[in-house]
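step 3/5: co-fold with protoporphyrin IX containing FE
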Amino acid sequence: MLFAIVALLFIVLVVGWWPNRRRRELIDKIPGPYHYPILGAVPYFILQPGKAWKEFRNYAKSRNYPMYKVVLFGAPYIHFLLPEDIEMVLSSRKHINKTNVYEYIKLWVGQGIFSSAGEKWHTRRKMASPGLFPKMLQSFVEIFGKHSEDLVERLEEECEKSSTEIQPLVSKCALYGVCESITGTKLDNDNDIDGYFDATHRFDTLLMHQLSRPWYMFFPIFALTPTYRELKRLARTLHNFTWAIIKKKKKEVEGFEKLNEYEFEANSERRFGLLDILLLAKNSDHVIDDEGIREEVDTFLFAGYDTTSAMMTFTLLLLASYGDIQQNVFNELQDVFGDSDRQPEYQDLQNLSYLDKVIRESLRLYPSVPAISRRITEEITTRSGYVIPKDTNINIRIFDIHHDPKLYPDPYKFDPERFSIDNCKNRHPFAYLPFSAGPRSCMGRKFAMLMGKCILSSILRKYQVEALQPLETVRLMNHALLTTKEPIRLKFVRR
Ligand code: HEM
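step 4/5: write tokens
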């Protein structure tokens, strides 16, 4: 028996410990809070649920470290805080692999652009890019305008109420905008949009539940939980919604292989989006199959609508809290639209330069995606002087970078002028990352800004928004998506 134990220890030492000693030495040099034997930083999540990340952040901030480590069950996660170090990872074509943090999102989006890597990611990204070319974006403005108009009408009855929970309303509007433009399909009663909407929100909530419990990173443990079973059920609901749209579209695209022929035939009756491009690619080169198309449609819906609705919700909250800035936005809207009720056109939205700065500053204060991560594929020596071994997880805490007083003096102040051309000139390009940066940055950045400006301008032309609580009392939840502990409520007043 004793011999067996000694032999086992020897094997563990030889296979696990000895070859990794350099890796461990390098990780040991990186600063971090106290780590417990074997469990590393896991006890912080057990002893202080919901507070662990804040604790780690304060630890690094108070000591002015450029990075800090959090080791969970032996796997180190290094949190980069310096734009120069972040640039090394995000701008590289080598370090494009995501970490296992993204694993459960795959239940929804499969191996689509968001979650895949290597050649597959590259081919898919190239194939999907034309779906967001400027010509396509221009054609989407009509869709955004139509749904903004519906939302503005819906808000009419909210003026009679003392307060309105805003996120579900802008979220539904964004879902219609993203879904109809990406799939080139007008949604009707056959599409269970309410069921889809509820399923996406429940899915996000369960993902947050999983992400805040590091022990659920082990699939064998997580697979036994009711949360996992519910995630799988929700994924089926989400997929059924997408399959119904794809099936209908397939009939329209049948017999076509070339984009120009199809576009010519398409005429004004038919809408044209990324889904059409993918189905044409399937018909012509068979480079993607039905499952792949489903993955990409789900990817764009997943990546596009909740992020944009968070951006709009926080922008409205900020404008409600800063009356003078809301007045500046309204003055610009008057200059562009006057008193007319017409829907925005593409050029109008391009002319809203002040609103543009407002949204950028809102994304700085409240980045919809507060953190991202990468698994680096080869050793790097950072500009701050640390050596990070191959196969290490790097976390980029966008929220913390956006609130660093060295990069943004008085960082909690809402000041859109930070995004004037002059004030941007000397800022490090990797100090502002709401859409990430480099080869794996957000594909929908221009889409999001365009849709956001369309919906927000439509609301603000008609209504004044008023805050019901001091901004400092809004409690944030810093998970996969930035949200608030309590729903944001605002008062809408007719202009
Ligand atoms: C305010 C709105 C948005 C924000 C803040 C945002 C932010 C981001 C961020 C930070 C990433 C990088 C994620 C990572 O590396 O883990 C990303 C990726 C992505 N986003 Fe967005 N996004 C927004 C809207 C959109 C929209 C509207 C679409 C599409 C219609 C979209 C499509 C994508 C896709 C496809 C990726 C994956 C890119 C890749 O991995 O190559 N996003 N987004």
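step 5/5: annotate
The longest helix spans residues 290-321.
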